[in-house]
């Protein structure tokens, strides 16, 4: 079996459809199944983690709300945001969940540094932040020793829906995207750059 991570593109696809496919992939894979990184943009949707509290959704409006099985509280997905789902056999990689979180966060920090942006994770709230504003959200599920769900990075999107939730359960948390930070980068360029950064961090040493 190759150690290479296979890349699968979903384009713009409904959240529930991709979530169901992730669960099926994880349930059906075996020790010889190659790891994959799925890339997708979702139509507008709020998602609530398995222990998420409904009061963190302040104003759902007409945006769908999906109760999902990842960790974390509430977040928003929408066009202009790159979502990367690493489907990794952690047992085979001898990697714990905390290490996976760290590697994913650091991959975003690496990529943002190449865009001239200083960023950092936060110990009390998974994700990546620029001057206190969240630019990347992270939530995972580990099942059968394998990961699914993953990472969402804001590139050039309508940020207004984040004002209708407490992002990741934190009231008043500021949220930003690459466009707001003045970086001229298309979603397609960001997708390729983030993919390289994530694969570099997840590939076996």
Strand order within the widest beta sheet:
1-2-6-10-9-8-7
* Share of helical residues: 25-40%
Shape: globular
Structural class of the helix and strand makeup? alpha+beta
Distance between the termini: 16 Å
Q: Count of DSSP E strands?
A: 10
Low-confidence stretches: none
**Binned strand content:** 25-35%
Main beta sheet, described?
Answer: 7 strands, mixed
Q: Please compute the radius of gyration using only Cα atoms.
A: 16 Å
Question: How large is the count of helical segments?
Answer: 4
N-to-C series of helices and strands: EHEEEEEHHEEEEH
Instruction: Estimate the mean pLDDT confidence.
Output: 95
Give structural notes.
With 205 residues, this protein is an alpha+beta fold. Helices cover 25% and strands 27% of the residues. The strands form 2 sheets. Strands 1-2-6-10-9-8-7 form a 7-stranded mixed beta sheet, sandwiched between helices. Strands 4-3-5 form a 3-stranded mixed beta sheet, with no helix packed on it. α3 crosses α4. The model has no long low-confidence stretch (mean pLDDT 95).
Please describe the structure with a list of short key phrases separated by commas or semicolons.
seven-stranded mixed sheet, 205 residues, three-stranded mixed sheet, 4 helices
Topology:
Blueprint: E1 6-12, H1 15-28, E2 36-41, E3 45-48, E4 65-67, E5 74-77, E6 81-87, H2 90-93, H3 97-114, E7 120-121, E8 128-130, E9 133-143, E10 146-154, H4 187-202
Helix pairs in contact: 3-4
């Amino acid at each position: 079996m190759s150690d290479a991570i296979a890349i699968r593109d979903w384009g713009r696809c409904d959240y529930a459809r991709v979530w169901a496919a992730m669960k099926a992939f994880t349930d059906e894979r075996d020790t010889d199944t190659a790891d994959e990184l799925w890339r997708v943009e979702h139509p507008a949707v709020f998602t609530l983690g398995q222990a998420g509290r409904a009061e963190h959704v302040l104003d759902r409006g007409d945006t769908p709300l999906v109760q999902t099985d990842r960790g974390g509280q509430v977040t928003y997905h929408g066009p202009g945001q790159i979502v990367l789902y690493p489907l990794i056999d952690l047992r085979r990689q001898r990697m714990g969940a905390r290490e996976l979180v760290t590697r994913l966060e650091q991959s975003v920090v690496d990529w943002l540094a190449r865009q001239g942006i200083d960023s950092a994770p936060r110990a009390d709230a998974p994700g990546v932040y620029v001057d206190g504003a969240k630019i990347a959200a992270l939530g995972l599920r580990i099942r059968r020793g394998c990961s699914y769900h993953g990472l969402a990075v804001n590139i050039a999107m309508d940020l207004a829906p984040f004002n209708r939730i407490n992002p990741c359960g934190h009231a008043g948390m500021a949220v930003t995207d690459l466009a707001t930070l003045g970086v001229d980068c298309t979603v397609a360029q960001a997708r390729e750059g983030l993919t390289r950064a994530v694969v570099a961090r997840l590939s076996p040493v």
